[in-house]
Amino acid sequence: MGPIGNFCYLLGDPATKKASVVDPSFDARPVQRFAEQHGLEIEAILVTHHHPDHIFDVERLADETAAKVFAHRLSNVRKDVALEDGDFIRLGEVKIKALHTPGHSPDSTCYIARNRIWTGDTLFIGECGRVDLPGGSAAELWESFFTKLIHLPDELVVFPGHNYGPKPFDTLGNQKRTNYTLHRRTKEEFVAFMGSP
Q: What is the pLDDT of residue 46?
C-alpha cells in the first residue's frame, strides 16, 4: 500500500470467518473488499506501531467495520484494547500473541499466530527498522532481537511491515542466518553498529 511499500495484512480464521487487519496503512479498502468477497468479517485491527504510514486508514476502517483496535499500551493510537507483552488476542479459533519489541519505536509490537509472525518495522527481510526517529533506541532493539526474536522457532514465517527486501517474506530461521542485523553482537557493539553509516 502507498508510496513506500507498506504491507497491510488480512488474517482470517477459515472456521469462523473472523478476520483481522494488521496495519491498515494508506488505503486498506482493497483488503476490505477481499474480505467481503470471501465472507470474512473484520473484527480486529492490529497496530504494530504508531507511525503514520502504518495507521493512516485505521479510523476509517474501524468506523466502517466496527472492528476493535489493538495496540500496545504505550502507543498514542486511539485503541480499544491496550496490549501488554505476552497478551493474547482471540480471532475466532485462532490465538494471536502480542510480543512487545521496542527499538524502532517504544510501542513496536509483533504478532504471532500459528507459524507466522508479523514484525512491523522491527524486522525486515534482510534488514531492520531504523532507530533514529523520535522514541527509537538501538539498545532497546538489541533487547528485542537478542532476548526475544532470536529465541523464537526457526520455522516461523516473517511478514514485515514494508516490501524492502529481496522477497516479501521469509522464515525466521533463514533471517537468523542471513540478516546481518541479527548477527550476534554485544549490546555495545549493536548500538555502535546501528549508529554507523
A: 98
User: Do residues 58 and 24 lie in contact, with contact meaning Cβ atoms separated by under 8 Å?
Assistant: yes
- Kindly report, residue by residue over 131-177, the tens digit of the pLDDT: 999 999 999 999 999 999 999 999 999 999 999 999 999 999 999 99
Statement: the pTM of the whole predicted model exceeds 0.90: yes
Specify whether the CB–CB gap between 67 and 61 falls below 8 A.
Answer: yes
∠ Cα 55 58 63 (to 5°): 170
**What is the DSSP secondary structure assignment for residue 23, as one 8-state letter?**
-
Asked if 113 contacts 95 with a C-beta cutoff of 8 angstroms, the reply is: yes
Rounded to whole angstroms, how far apart are CA atoms 52 and 74? 15
Residue 51 is classified by DSSP as -
Burial class (CB in 10 A: 0-12, 13-18, 19+), 46: buried
Give the model's pLDDT for residue 104.
98
Q: What is the pLDDT of residue 137?
A: 98
What per-residue confidence (pLDDT) applies to 142? Answer: 98
Which domains, ranges and CATH numbers included, belong to the chain?
9-194 (3.60.15.10)
Instruction: Please give the Cα distance from 195 to 45 (Å, whole number).
Output: 33
What integer is the mean pLDDT of 96-119? 98
Q: Which three cell numbers stand for residue 187?
A: 549490546
